[in-house]
Amino acid sequence: xxxxxxxxxxxxxxxxxxxxxxxxxxxxxxxxxxxxxxxxxxxxxxxxxxxxxxxxxxxxxxxxxxxxxxxxxxxxxxxxxxxxxxxxxxxxxxxxxxxxxxxxxxxxxxxxxxxxxxxxxxxxxxxxxxxxxxxxxxxxxxxxxxxxxxxxxxxxxxxxxxxxxxxxxxxxxxxxxxxxxxxxxxxxxxxxxxxxxxxxxxxxxxxxxxxxxxxxxxxxxxxxxxxxxxxxxxxxxxxxxxxxxxxxxxxxxxxxxxxxxxxxxxxxxxxxxxxxxxxxxxxxxxxxxxxxxxxxxxxxxxxxxxxxxxxxxxxxxxxxxxxxxxxxxxxxxxxxxxxxxxxxxxxxxxxxxxxxxxxxxxxxxxxxxxxxxxxxxxxxxxxxxxxxxxxxxxxxxxxxxxxxxxxxxxxxxxxxxxxxxxxxxxxxxxxxxxxxxxxxxxxxxxxxxxxxxxxxxxxxxxxxxxxxxxxxxxxxxxxxxxxxxxxxxxxxxxxxxxxxxxxxxxxxxxxxxx
Length: 514
Known about the structure:
Blueprint lengths: L1 H16 L9 E4 L19 H7 L5 E4 L2 E4 L9 E3 L3 E5 L5 E4 L11 E3 L7 E4 L2 E3 L6 E4 L5 E3 L2 E3 L6 E4 L4 E3 L2 E3 L6 E4 L5 E3 L2 E3 L6 E4 L4 E3 L2 E3 L15 E4 L6 E3 L2 E3 L6 E4 L5 E3 L2 E3 L7 E4 L11 H4 L1 H4 L4 H9 L8 E2 L2 E3 L6 E2 L17 E3 L2 E4 L63 H27 L5 H18 L5 H26 L1
Parallel strand pairs: 1-2, 2-5, 3-6, 4-7, 5-8, 6-9, 7-10, 8-11, 9-12, 10-13, 11-14, 12-15, 13-16, 14-17, 15-18, 16-19, 17-20, 18-21, 19-22, 20-23, 21-24, 22-25, 23-26, 24-27, 25-28, 26-29, 27-30, 28-31
Antiparallel strand pairs: 32-33
Helix pairs in contact: 6-7, 6-8, 7-8
């Protein structure tokens, strides 16, 4: 059911996105065992690299990418892959079509860039985009399109970075990137719907002077004690007085710092979410200039002695936050966060439908709601803006009164309790203890291989600094993973990062050894 609903929705989106395309709409084919010749339109003689096929395509074409590994060291792929025309890229499936942007020895690059010389409409689906020393997928220069059914993982900075661009990002797994899962900045207005965003080292989603719609996502386990450049990390971080995101029907849980952090004048609408169980800090933090009481008094009017220590523009923002004198926060369950549920703002529990009760998930590893028992069932608001059409499983979103969070308990028409069994969202992301232990074992094997190659390279007098650094980083991740097995999701994320760094180290050493 979920695949059918998502497929129909995506097909409609792609048809809409390509409404103004030329008539030709040819199909081009790529296989990592092919040959870069001709126009790539013969499926029996595919081209070898994605970039070559893009160069042959014209606006409106579809490029079919066969299962395989597209990497500098395997098929000669050149990074970043750049797209400056209206195209559709369709992989054979995220589990089998890997685009790995790692380019030894150390030249930092993105994996895919959209909008390099002009605004473009680019649809991307069915790919695993990983290994970029910078960004996995970057949209800029007014570009847009549909990004769906991809794994975007293990990139050196953001998984997806949007600079003045507004694609629809729907039904992807975005995980274990070294910075943010998604960073929207410079007036980007994307739709971020029904994604699984987990294990990123800094923020799950970072909103910087942009206005995204963020709805229906599971945002969990982002940030870490040493995460990213600045440490920590939030589920959603909102920055700047030009940021007014709509945040509806998400489950935002187990993030390291705040589940939602709002600063410097951001004005979000937050409705129908479950915001619970931070590791270190708050459920919702409203900091610096953004304190607002129910009477409409800003912190600048309450603490003038502190205001004089801040820049003039921040003082001005203090007086203009919320022209209507109200928070736009309603029908959320904010509960069980490590420090406070509400920080540097009024406690809104019991106001405008906000509650603070244990949401009663099925288990620590399953954020579905317990049928009949969860206080989040039928506790949302049907008038909340941008409620997604389906929940994260692809089921009907509003059965009677919408539930809080990313999953909707399915019930009969007259709204009794659950009448059909819960179905956990299918995913190939390992999260249980056996998966973590398996990846630790694989990492141990690769660590031995990497150390053996390092010894050989050192004996030849090669400069092994970069390769050795990767090995040391991988070993530190592996040690932390072994020590974190009581939290299998986190341990597995760390082990996956260690595996990738060891693969990079082995490629680096093999290049040195010739």
